Automatic annotation (TrEMBL):
The species this protein was found in: Solanum verrucosum
UniProt name for this protein: gibberellin 3beta-dioxygenase
Top-level enzyme category: oxidoreductase
Superkingdom classification of source: Eukaryota
Family to which this protein belongs: Belongs to the iron/ascorbate-dependent oxidoreductase family. GA3OX subfamily.
UniProt keyword terms in alphabetical order: Dioxygenase, Iron, Metal-binding, Oxidoreductase, Vitamin C
Amino acid sequence: MPSRISHSFRPHHSQKHFDLNSIKELPESHAWTSSNDHYTQENSCNFESIPVIDLDNNNNNNNNILDHIGHACKKWGAFQIINHSISERLLQDIDVAGKTLFSLPMQQKLKAARSPDGVTGYGVARISSFFSKLMWSEGFTIVGSPIEHARQLWPKDYKKFCEVIEEYEKEMEKLAGRLMWLILGSLGITKDDVKWAVGPKGETKEGCAALQLNSYPACPDPGRAMGLAAHTDSTILTILHQNNTSGLQVYQEVNGWVTVPPIPGALVVNVGDLLHILSNGSYPSVLHRAVVNRTQHRLSVAYLYGPPTGVRVSPLSKLLDHRHPPLYRAVTWSEYLGTKAKYFDKALSSVRLCVPLSGFADAKDHNGVQVG
Ligand SMILES: C=C1C[C@]23C[C@@]1(O)CC[C@H]2[C@@]12CCC[C@@](C)(C(=O)O1)[C@H]2[C@@H]3C(=O)O
Ligand SMILES: O=C(O)CCC(=O)C(=O)O
Ligand SMILES: [Fe+2]
């Protein structure tokens, strides 16, 4: 797998590593005052959440799937998928791998710590540097082979972890490619329209990807803590597995923060900033966050999928005409990650070319929505 993902978020406050599993009272450093709206959706009885789409062609014909996906991307920027071909066994294996990793003693985890300029390894959420408060989570980022870090964590016994991660990456790569074509298909885009994504034999070219394991320990004061602050992913799309414990919320103009209920075996698909650019703003990237709870440890695994190294992504020409000029300039994923590391929630606006004739606001400015 190509592994040219660079650009780190540089910490600008000291990164003390808290062992969140052993803290009995929420420290001031982790108290987010404005986050007591976490549970509003769950309390109302009739709330709507993101669509669930069956990817099995025997249950759902392809046109139906495209319609559902198009609607979900426009209205929500996210959807859940079932019958997606990732086995339950592999989902269980990745849960076990994540739990094994995060339950290591802190000193051991720090042997595989992400370096200040690095991308991979163990550490606090990368976006932490944009917030004065710390998040109630820890993460582990993998790009390509995990062997180097796995050896640091388990010098004698790293093989099983590596096997599971590599199998997961391989299966996710296939699924992400399939999803990308379905999503683009829902915009009327075919393989002929996206040359950079197709190899000489008509095969989908391997994209770049990162695997992010997130751990959210049970929290003594969940109403005042934040698992992972509101953000959009810099990807084409992200495939998220959450371990039967709720916590993921997506933001929607009409309903505010909406919980994405875990469905056993289902995966969540998020529209990322690069798909926002490719679709010229038709499919806005989704603002999302993770909240925590008092009793259950939560684990999530995000497969962050982007274009191949060096490919410049820009609004697809088939979607443009004199009434729909390109709204974003071309960027490579690496360049965009650098922009995100610098401007965070203003990254998309910073690559914007002009204000659309229809006058819609850039969804990423999320007027008035506090990202914290
Ligand atoms: C490829 C990447 C996307 C990501 C930054 C990274 O280099 C690896 C981790 C990714 C992640 C996961 C959690 C949320 C996020 C905003 C972050 O801080 O790290 C994303 C980054 C992103 O999508 O910009
Ligand atoms: O844990 C979650 O549900 C969200 C994780 C996430 O947004 C990410 O890793 O980018
Ligand atoms: Fe995310």
